[in-house]
Design goal:
2 copies of one chain form a homodimer.
Chain A: E1 4-9, E2 15-27, E3 33-37, E4 42-45, E5 47-53, E6 58-63
Parallel strand pairs in A: 1-6
Antiparallel strand pairs in A: 1-2, 2-3, 3-4, 5-6
Protein name (chains A, B): RNA-binding protein
InterPro entries (chains A, B): CooT
């Protein structure tokens, strides 16, 4: 199974976990990012997808 | 192993494979996206990461 932990990275490089076990990450019509975990949990944040490290099961967001 | 096929999605929704078996996707200093596959192959494109569908091992880019 390929899912990832999604972290928000601030300007100092500090990583904060937003949601774990995420499958879907997609933009919403109002400029946010929706994350959906493999358990169906959802979170919305105003951010953009910055980078991925899939071998470590990580996706990084940066604030808008 | 968690890697993904990276597709560029145009305005009509057409998906074009850019690089398969990708592990790292990261921004470059000059505003491009660098992709690195699990085999070490690299590609650069002027785009941003739009969305992910990790259970299908897919990441979607949109042109800048």
């Amino acid at each position: 199974m390929c899912e990832a932990a999604v972290f928000m990275v601030d300007d100092s490089g500090k990583e904060d976990l937003v949601l774990g076990e995420v499958d879907l990450i997609e933009p919403t019509d109002d400029g946010q990012i929706r994350m959906v975990s493999i358990f169906g949990e959802q979170k919305l944040v105003r951010a953009r997808i910055k980078s991925t490290n899939l071998s470590e099961h990580k996706v990084f967001l940066s604030p808008m």
